[in-house]
Amino acid sequence: MLYDYYSGMERKLFAALAAGVLLICLAVFAGCTGTPDAGDGAGDGAKETAKQTPVPQPTTGPDESGAGESEKAVASADNMFAFDLYKQLTAGDNPDENIFFSPYSISSAFALVYEGAKGGTADEIQSVFHFPEGIKVLRDGFLSINSGINAGDPDYELSVANALWAEETYSFLDDYIKTAKDYYSADTTNLDFINQPEESRLTINKWAEDETHDKIKDLIPQGMIDPLTRLVITNAVYFKGDWVKQFDVNNTHEAAFTTASGKSVTVDMMQRTDEDAVFGYMENDDLQMLKMPYDHDSGRELAMYVILPKGNDLKAVEENLDADRLTELKGAIAEKEVKVFFPKFKLETEYSLSKTLAAMGMPVAFSDMADFSGMDGTKSLSISDVIHKAYVDVNEEGTEAAAATAVVMRLTAVMDEEPVPVFLADHPFIFMIEDTDDGNILFMGKVSDPA
């Protein structure tokens, strides 16, 4: 029976992959924020001004799908990074571990990091995140995507936000601050990391909480901000939408779900088995794929894609899944009637990504060899921590998802200036007259009373 087949599928990794695809799709189908104007440089206080300057506009026109070349390049980069990171996060020993993250949130934060990187540091970041070669393509792409995301739609909520948090006594380059505002809508706020690190942490966390509608709390853990912190880069993404074809809560029932380790658990299983249950669908010998769209009006179509292996071996599907394979599978989708059984689930995840990103190919950014001179004109900064938190709730009505990323940058080392010595011979002293060629002491004495 079809119901029994679905109810026996592995729950947690199935839910994780389904949810993980969600924000990938947001990057593909959503399009990015009008940018505020540059304020004063951070070294001068980085204060916001009322002066308005023209908003940069992407130069590449849209294709038939409505996406410009720069937007497609950034979306493609984000998708490649998404699968790279997914493979890293699923490489652990716990087969029943849920995975959920926003690749777009992490990529957005690191686009701002990349803007300030130079030399080999920049090369490594570009490689890990698959950023386009041309900086103009990168900037135009994020500008376009964020503008589309924040344009709004009457039928769903979707937003993205960036911010820079700078130590108030530290000088950042005006060009870096202006680029962050013009292309990434990242306002710069001055904080006193040196004397008030805990208060600064709470301020940043409040911003993340507000931008994610209270879904992401305590983004930066206690103690991560300290007197050596000089810059924190943050991103937040929020989505809430209803299914085009909602599930009847009266049809939701308890059912068995087999996890990857073979354990049987009980879940609330939603179902659509009526004649109006027409969805985008494809299948091959290895898997089934379902497209469940969200209600939309004037904005772009958003949808959840679910990849379900035939049998309880998700690993076999994961091994052959990447951005190109996803595009191939989506291309085979056709609208048809499908009897759908899908579990309700809610996930909350948190990742410390410093070691993961270093292992993926960008170790220099986390070392004292880092070059972020594009931010401050020196090589004094490195990344100390990368925190990512995500939330998703899938139910009969639709989906709510949120994520936030924080990149914490600090001084690589503190070089204390040597004090200018004072030699005040106002008390007895010893003196010697020495042959400096061989160190032979020719004369030696002590002065106790020079008068």
Automatic annotation (TrEMBL):
Ranges in a coiled coil: none
InterPro entries, alphabetized: Serpin_CS, Serpin_dom, Serpin_fam, Serpin_sf, Serpin_sf_1, Serpin_sf_2
Xref: PANTHER family: GH10112P-RELATED, SERINE PROTEASE INHIBITOR, SERPIN
Lineage, uppermost ranks: Archaea, Methanobacteriati, Methanobacteriota, Stenosarchaea group, Methanomicrobia
Positions with biased composition (Polar residues): 51-62
Domain Serpin positions: 83-450
Gene Ontology, cellular component aspect: extracellular space
One matching Pfam family: Serpin
Gene Ontology terms for molecular function: serine-type endopeptidase inhibitor activity
Domain of life of the source: Archaea
PROSITE patterns associated with the record: SERPIN
Region annotation (Disordered) ranges: 40-71
Name of the protein this chain belongs to: Serpin family protein
Gene3D superfamilies listed in its UniProt record: Alpha-1-antitrypsin, domain 1, Antithrombin, subunit I, domain 2
Family (UniProt): Belongs to the serpin family.
SUPFAM superfamilies attached to this UniProt entry: Serpins
